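pasting for ref
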Amino acid sequence: MTAFELLLFSTDPETVSRYTEAGVDGFIVDWERMGKETRQAGADTEINKDTPEDLRRVRAATNARLLCRLNQSGPWTPGEIEEAVAGGADELLIPMVRSPEEVLEAIRLAAGRCGVGILIETLDAVRHAAQLARLPISRAYVGLNDLSIERRSRSIFEPLTDGLVDGIRPLFTIPFGLAGLTLPECGRPIPCRLLIGEITRLSCGFSFLRRSWRRDMAGREPRAELLRIRAAIERASRRSAEEIARDRAELVETVAAAAGGDAGPRKIP
């Protein structure tokens, strides 16, 4: 298994510096907020309000990889890309992708100055996955929250159990990620150990450390806990076929219970 990237959402220079020393692989500054409050109304999501100044502060605090999530593509995109490049971003993340054309435009505007990654979190992106996978992008991440809103799913984890992720995963040869991780023994309603198992089964290359990680890390030492989560990922990557099947069955059962019913395979819209 190749090295697995753990990426942390943070704009606090002290936190960024501490986690750089602890061994986190990169940081994400999040500019996405246009239309997000309306789209995610009533959903248990996190909406950040990071700024270009936040990006510059994080860049000054670390030599680790720095990603900037922009707003979904629109007339503002050229200006955002210029600000992100000027602020030191190594990579852009384009959310709510709906067409290969908008990604190609972002790549053109970046002009080789930084990488361009995408978030697969719309049905249009799922339908165009084969075309998107052929573009010169740096990474692809399945955004379960927005995808579940658009699909009207009962659980954000349904794409992991109903065949959607399994259907698109083989198309991508670049780093592919999904979900968010916390301490191996934590996580609800889906235990993190089961998400780690699914991430390794799908040969993912990265994931995010977000709200649950920050909550579960209270009073803990980052370096030691990052080593523990990496060890859990390594162990999961060495499971036997029988162990993988057992963990997969438990995941499907747990997602179904969290959704209040059957969350097994179904026709993908």
